[in-house]
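Consider the following input, taken from an annotated entry for Amino acid transporter (Paenibacillus methanolicus).
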Amino acid sequence: MSAVFVGFSLFISVCVAALLLGNLAQRHAASALQRPLPDISHDVRRAAGDKHGLYQQGQARQQIGRMNGFAAFSFSFSGMGLIGCGCWLLLPAVAQGGPAVLGIGWPVIGLFAVLSACIYASSASGMPSTGGVYHWVSSILGNRWGVLAGGLHIAGQAVLYAVSNVLAASWLNMTLSEAFGYEASPIGQYALLAVLFAVQSWTGARDPVRLGRLFVAGAWLEIATMLIVIAIVVCSGEIGYWPIQMIYEQKHPVDVMAASPDATSVLLGLLLLYRGMIGGERAAAMTEETADARVHTPWAIFLSTAYAVVFGYLFFAILLVQIPFSPEAGGLLTGINAIIGGDASKLYSAVAVIVFMSTLFSGAGNLASIARTWDAMARERAALMGERFRIVTRRKGQARSLAVTVVGCAMISLSVLMVHARGGESALPVQPMLLAFLLLHAALAIVAGGRCAARFSGIAILSGPWRLGRIEPWTERLTAAWAIAWLGGIAWFLSAMTWSILGVAGLLLSLTAALRLKKSGKEQRPPLTATRSGSERNAHGVHSSN
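Applying the prediction step yields:
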């Protein structure tokens, strides 16, 4: 019972911490000079809001902000893909580290995910730019560090998106073969992968208004699916096949492993589950398309991460206690079908459609995020081949940069799928996932560590209406320490081949960054706050935080 008490207390603590942080940010936002201006027409808000602030910071805005706050939230939340995470990563994570990785481990990593979201939200509020990590780091550490952080973040997003499509194609291939009675084959995987990329690229190329509607539909799909599953379990009168205490134990009741999971397997299980919390900062890529971005974008980043932590915990716990088999002996759909009975093909088909739609929305959001961030870096000649492919239109958005992104991610997916096929249908592409986590957390460490270094050096940090006040420096220190520690844990699992690939990619990135910076004539850009006084910043709703 002690493990149950600890796990439940941790989850409640995370929920309370998220509420307190959100309330603190709301109080600061209410007292800021920058307001959503709901009573003023859209034209006035567009002319006097974030566009003017970006011009003063030396950044251009090429799109009209027509997306509302919920659309920005949906962009981040649907991109996390909790449904897909529950289908193809929940059982492998439990098989590695035991059910306790969900009952106890999820709240722990969820707390740090919320803290990371606070850092990203504060940065997005101070500098509402589509460049995201690139511009946030450049504003305090200079252009060299900005190019490095932006490149790491884009690369991490691309690898994670490619691996997610591979997982979706493999899972859909096996599920559809069970539903329609044919034998799963590699050809089916490649065909489904091609369909996913084609539909996602077509969806991601829509104009901002249609994109916002699609993201809202994707978020409602995620929310409705989780609520329906929870409602079915509650209405059935039974908590689950296994007692709820099972999710706090080290071993599954019918685990085929003779020994309890060790620290290494538990860490790997946590890494697999952590996929469901990554992606809240993607809302920053839609800043130019979002109205009142200083307010809506940071709230989208924070709330999407907080909701993913809370709803993901409840959703995964209910799924896990409903599975009557060992995580290593049976699949998720097989276990659920054994409980509800009936025609298995109908269940498989329905779930396959939901997972396909969830993957579609998530992938389209990832593509749009990568393309827009790369395009923002290309404006300052900080991205490879930016001048050739950077074209922005009202109907198609960043059409050419999106096409280049699709080709690059498709090549990564094909490479992962070919290696993945050698390990059999049950093998997971763990190494590419770990590589993506490593790149994303390296970018997070630069953002949080850069803010800490700026405060220590006395460099003013652009701070908007969304901020945490006095506790923000402590949040940055905890996030930086968490990111560095997580980097060490991820590095432990990387193979020699993965390190070789990372080394070659790092060398190419360094050479590219040096050449681009030399060509642009901006070897070191001074902090953006150096030429502005405090009164000038406050006149536009921007606050200096030291």
